[in-house]
Amino acid sequence: MKLGATLFGVVLFYGLISFTSATLFNTRPATSVPIDENGRAIAMDPNVVLAEAAPAASAAPAPAAAPEEVEEVVELDPFTEIDPATIVGDATAGEAVFQKNCKTCHKVDGKNAVGPHLDGVVGRATGTVEGFKYSKAMKGHTGYWTADRLTAYLTEPKAEVPKNKMAFAGFKDDTQSMQDVIAYLYSVSQ
Fold first, then answer.
1. 36-68 pLDDT, tens per residue?
2. Of 17, 40, 14, 22, which is closest to residue 144 (Cα–Cα)?
């Protein structure tokens, strides 16, 4: 009993420290991914520079550029299509796995908690939940949350994204629970 209470206290303390430090010291850079009115990322061409994010060359005003010289933001779909055949778990069982392992830090109601909300996560661009302050490691983990990427991440989060802030150790040897929780997250992503 004492060991359980001690472990719970350590996990709670770690979560509080992690959340507090993330709140105080992490900020999103000025060049973060733009978010549309639905809270979804607007993927951009990496060679395009946003006007407000570009550094000023000098204090003197720059001459007006010809319209053909102005680069525009290229809007791409912030989601990738997910082949339903890649989702092999049981969503109902996955909801129970989510309640047991994930709900302490994540919600599926569009609200962020210690971690970002996970509704809409399957197929979403990584690190793009509006209002959530991601670690530098997670900001650098680019791409989309496909079934394969979620499997790799949920197997061992610290191995897939070193120095990320998630305290969960992963489903290392529990493939079925991992597949079930991915199926559940897919069901709340539709």
1. 555 555 554 444 444 433 444 444 555 555 555
2. 40
